[in-house]
Write a structure and sequence with these properties.
Fructose-1,6-Bisphosphatase, Chain A, domain 1; 2 domains; 13 strands; binds adenosine-2'-5'-diphosphate; binds magnesium ion; 3'(2'),5'-bisphosphate nucleotidase activity; metal ion binding; EC 3.1.3.7; Inositol_monophosphatase_CS
């Protein structure tokens, strides 16, 4: 019944399979050894894995959904890829699920797919491969609605590498076991490679019992989902719509929040500015607005309201 499923269900089911294939490409580039690093800016590396994974994802999704706008971190991509990189199948298990009523009638032109082919590139080049994720975020009009977070280097109990987490607002999440972070503690997960004085000032305002410095927006949201941290803070511009669309959708499908540091959700339509100028604050199982008001007003004014 694949062809009759609502567009959003088909985009999600195709993105699950495509993110897995991209994860395989990311492992292959590392195995082969030459990362082909290019510096796009300060602390902003790109590797052959970013480029190849993006080509795989954009070519596959464009072929399947020609009427859908797709925006990838690595810019315009050559859609001419080998058959091995062209993912045609859909995740059948996902397709069996029932589509939430609110998205059932969404048309191809209502969607924007935000692709971060490799989130945590700095960490990938430094050997912290468990921080790496593939992010495919699905926006309907302005809102982040669905997301895939694939971890290429996650070791399954049976030894298999890779796991795929999904979330769709109104339906829920899959691919991991949700738990809340320990009560009585306050653990913050934050950047390890893009800190600055402004961000540090915000971090200092929290009575944290522990600060985890890890790479990638996807990995930090996974830490929230698995109860390793209570909040994710990045109080400065730097991450972009492709970093937050999928994590926001998955976290919010689980009852959490991912907003700017003023507590406002970002917009994900095709015309928005790519940079998330007002930073990121995410939490699950917490009073999110209380966290917003812990961030010093000076910091919130510096990034803009
Ligand atoms: N200053 C920056 N320049 C470029 N990318 C950034 C910057 N800050 C954050 N990012 C992106 O957001 C992700 C999360 O940031 P951090 O790990 O510092 O918390 C990074 O892995 C990176 O995504 P990517 O690795 O896909 O380029
Ligand atoms: Mg990058
Ligand atoms: Mg990223
Ligand atoms: Mg990236």
């Amino acid at each position: 019944m694949a062809s009759t499923a609502p567009v959003i269900m088909r985009i999600m089911a195709s993105s699950i399979q495509t993110a897995k294939r991209a994860g395989g490409i990311i492992r292959d580039v590392l195995k082969q050894g030459d990362l082909g690093i290019v510096d796009k800016g300060k602390n902003d590396p790109q590797t052959e894995a970013d480029r190849s994974a993006q080509r795989c994802i954009i070519a596959s999704l464009t072929k399947k959904f020609p009427g859908v706008k797709i925006i990838g971190e690595e810019g315009g991509s050559d859609l001419n890829v080998c058959d091995d990189w062209l993912v045609e199948d859909l995740d059948e298990e996902f397709l069996q699920k029932s589509c939430p009523a609110e998205w059932r009638d969404a048309k191809p032109e209502d969607f924007v797919i935000w692709v971060d082919p490799l989130d945590g590139t700095a960490e990938y080049t430094q050997g912290y491969v468990e921080h790496v994720t593939v992010l495919i975020g699905i926006a309907v009009k302005d809102a982040a609605v669905g997301g895939i977070i694939h971890q290429p280097f996650y070791q399954q109990p049976d030894g298999e590498l890779g796991r795929t987490i999904w979330g769709l607002k109104g339906l829920g999440t899959g691919g991991f076991t949700h738990s809340l972070a320990p009560p009585g503690e306050f653990i913050i997960t934050t950047t390890r490679s893009h800190s600055n004085a402004l961000h540090q000032q915000a971090l200092n305002a929290f009575p944290a019992t522990k600060i985890l410095k890890v790479g990638g927006a996807g990995f930090k949201v996974l830490q929230l989902l698995e109860g390793k941290a209570h909040a994710y803070l990045f109080a400065t511009p730097g991450c972009k719509k492709w970093d937050t669309c999928a994590p926001e959708a998955v976290l919010e499908a689980q009852g959490g929040f991912l907003t700017d540091i003023n507590g406002k959700n970002y917009s994900y339509n095709a015309d928005v500015e790519h940079v998330n100028r007002q930073g990121v604050l995410a939490s699950v199982g917490e009073n999110h607005s209380e966290l917003v008001y812990k961030i010093p007003r000076k910091v919130r004014e510096a990034v803009g309201v």
